[in-house]
Write a structure and sequence with these properties.
Chain lengths: ~260, ~260
DNA sequence: CGAGTAGTTGATCCGAGTCAATCGTCGTGG
DNA sequence: CCACGACGATTGACTCGGATCAACTACTCG
């Protein structure tokens, strides 16, 4: 139900990179025809994950990195007391498990929030391929670098911004990401529970609930459960960066995709 | 006031990687003799930075990545209203400016907190060298991956832990890092101001001050301005991870749905 | 239908921010 | 050599944002 907007048709999981609608956004972008063919030889696709299925779990042996093809993935860790901490929500085009390369085992867990198609890239083959395709190495460096920059921005968010600012930034990021995939930036489904948004933003779920209510009453949003409509983007952006974030704010989100 | 030109190429600091005391920690570790020689050919060393000098500034054109050889570097950004946000303190052996690779310009600023020696690595040469030395590429992937994992941990810290927990984690991290460089893990100088610690941890400097006082009174620390002595490491560790940070979690914890 | 779960709303409390006063140290100049 | 001002650190008093606790509502699913 709440997946209607994000699902792609069933045949896509057989499709090649060449005619994938994400080919300009993902790891394989900027490769020429020959290189793409080589790349494609190491990519594996399989049956989609269903909601609640894990792609990998923390402390599993590390083998692959993954790209989300459609659907969405929640990335988190579980602590000893059972509490979880959510590091991110991955939408189509994004690369998963980069944080796990150094350790030999997955540093976090990844679970599908809805029916989700995945491209699987065995890491050793990939590393070897990077030796043959400088573009590919370069691209991974760049993606890793953006991940670091993005993580820094989130640290800033968590360390210095209050609840409504965090929430506004979150909504705009979601909007952007969803927009990148060709859907409406103003009307979209949030695939995650309130509790997960709260956890991700370092807040209590009651706080998120109150913010939804308030933004709804103030005419900034129109909220119907998980269906969100942004009614006043200007105001939302003003809340997200009050005095203005540092110069090129949110640029990191677009650089994977934007042309160079 | 402006130090943009402060990297002067004297060939004076000839200390080679081969007999550098950091060679097992830094980017060049795990290279064989031949590879190390190639690597060394692209590394540049120059006069040390003095306290308050910038290594680079945010939005400068991106050219190099850097390794701290001795001293320490503060990494931060400045926001439009002049407020700053500190992302990290870099001690010897650490690699700087990874977050800037994707953008073509430095995403943050780096300033010396004391007299600091630096190894400078022109990024284009480095990228080319990675094509010839698989180990080097692998190493950079790993360092980038650890940076991401580290950033995730800090997000967890900022999102979910209270002031004394953050502070304890910070002290232990400092202790570890300093210990890695062969100094005492229990008695050390903090090179940064209280305000900077506070900023880094997302707290007010008064809070940090109170924590120093409290930990001192409780016999956990002995504090003399910037000289710190850890008197009760056990207790400090207990504060840093109350129920235990994230675990080597085993799969028996069967939650909602799972298994693929 | 009924039970279980997610979300909302209200009441209360507490940790840490803010404001303000004071102290100590350092560096400068008379 | 001391007086002075500047700045960082400490301490206290007060405030407030958001967590926590506790009902209550509304779906969803069996």
């Amino acid at each position: 139900m709440d997946n209607r907007h994000n699902i792609v048709n069933l045949k896509t999981y057989q499709a090649s990179c060449t005619n994938c609608n994400l080919k300009d956004f993902c790891l394989a972008s900027h490769l020429d025809v020959m290189e793409l063919e080589q790349f494609e030889r190491i990519v594996e696709r399989s049956q989609p994950l269903q909601r609640g299925q894990h792609l990998y779990r923390q402390s599993d042996k590390f083998h692959n990195i993954y790209i989300v093809k459609s659907g969405s993935i929640k990335n988190y860790i579980t602590m000893q007391d059972g509490a979880e901490c959510i590091f991110g929500f991955y939408l189509p085009g994004e690369l998963l498990a980069l944080d796990s390369i150094a350790k030999g085992e997955y540093a976090s867990s990844a679970i599908a929030q809805q029916t989700t198609y995945i491209c699987k890239i065995p890491y050793p083959s990939f590393e070897r391929l990077c030796q043959q395709i400088p573009h590919l190495q370069e691209k991974l460096f760049q993606i890793a670098a953006s991940k670091i920059a993005e993580a820094y921005n989130r640290q800033l968010l968590l360390a210095q911004r209050n609840s409504e600012e965090r929430f506004a930034v979150f909504l705009l990021n979601q909007s952007d990401q969803i927009g990148k995939n060709g859907y409406s930036k103003n009307v979209f489904y949030l695939s995650m529970a309130r509790q997960d948004i709260a956890n991700y933003l370092g807040l209590a779920c009651e706080t998120i609930s109150r913010l939804f209510t308030r933004f709804n009453n103030e005419g900034i949003l129109q909220v119907k459960k998980k269906l969100i409509r942004i009614r006043d983007q200007k105001r939302l952006m003003a809340i997200a960066s009050p005095t203005g974030l540092y110069p090129v704010q949110t640029a990191y989100r677009s650089e994977l995709n934007s042309e160079s």
